[in-house]
Design brief:
Number of helices: 10
Number of domains: 1
CATH class: Alpha Beta
Number of strands: 7
Structural class: alpha/beta
Helix content: 40-55%
CATH topology: Rossmann fold
CATH architecture: 3-Layer(aba) Sandwich
Mean pLDDT: 84
Low-confidence stretches: 1-7, 30-35
CATH superfamily: P-loop containing nucleotide triphosphate hydrolases
Largest sheet: 5 strands, parallel
Strand content: 5-15%
Length: 233
């Protein structure tokens, strides 16, 4: 009794070769020995906005933060490190200096390094819109999930319209992550004085203590791209 039917396997091989050929891949080519794709990074691509799927954490301070977080992770199944407690990161700078690019680059770098990572990313405006009370929606449960997530990215903090309610939501979220020492990656267009005025003293004080700060400067890269679409990167 044979373990496999060679004719059945041959049919599968032919179909696979046809699929590869239609995709412009030579089915007879020998692998070049390059690095294999990281499954976790491939799985995360659908959750990363298309513009940032090739993002890299190439700022030295952001890359250093990535290394620190990766090294602090507790070993899990198979020995791969997982996010544990650690410092947060605040990336500040004017519009178009690459803050969001660096933030998603940090996520991709952690995944590419093999870190087991459960993460969520949101803009401040989307955060408040998603949590705003409405029938049939459990905003409290969603807030708890965000507060407990091992790594949370909050993009454009300070860009949404301020109210007592947004200040309360931000305080509850940041305070939990501050108390539990959970890494939080925050980007903002505001300096610390303006951020304090927008989010309140309690939020700004906690961010100052819990987060390393990176300031990005330079021209608006989006405007440069519009002027020189071919040369811009």
């Amino acid at each position: 009794m044979r373990d496999h039917d060679p004719q059945h396997l041959g049919g599968i091989a032919r179909r696979l070769a046809h699929i590869l050929t239609t995709r412009g891949i030579d089915p007879t080519a020998t692998p070049d020995g390059g690095p294999e794709p990281v499954p976790a990074l491939l799985a995360a691509e659908s959750r990363i906005p298309a513009r940032y799927r090739g993002a890299t954490a190439d700022h030295p301070a952001v890359a250093a933060w990535v290394r620190t977080i990766a090294e602090a992770g507790r070993p899990g199944p198979g020995g791969a490190p997982g996010i544990a407690q650690g410092r947060s990161l605040l990336i500040a700078g004017t519009t178009g200096t690459g803050k969001t690019h660096q933030a998603y680059g940090a996520i991709r770098s952690l995944l590419g390094a093999g870190v087991r990572l459960r993460w969520k990313a949101t803009t401040a405006a989307d955060l408040y819109a998603d949590l705003r009370p409405r029938p049939g929606h459990d905003g409290e449960r969603e807030l708890r999930d965000l507060a407990r997530c091992p790594l949370l990215v909050i993009d454009d903090l300070g860009a949404a319209k301020y109210s007592e309610w947004t200040e309360e939501i931000t305080m509850r979220l940041i305070n939990h992550r501050y108390n539990e020492m959970l890494p939080t990656l925050v980007t903002t267009n505001l300096g610390m004085a303006d951020l304090r005025a927008h989010t309140g003293d309690r939020v700004a004080s906690r961010l100052s203590e819990m987060a390393d700060k990176v300031i990005l400067d330079g021209p608006d890269r989006r405007r440069a791209h519009r002027r020189h679409p071919v040369a811009a990167v």
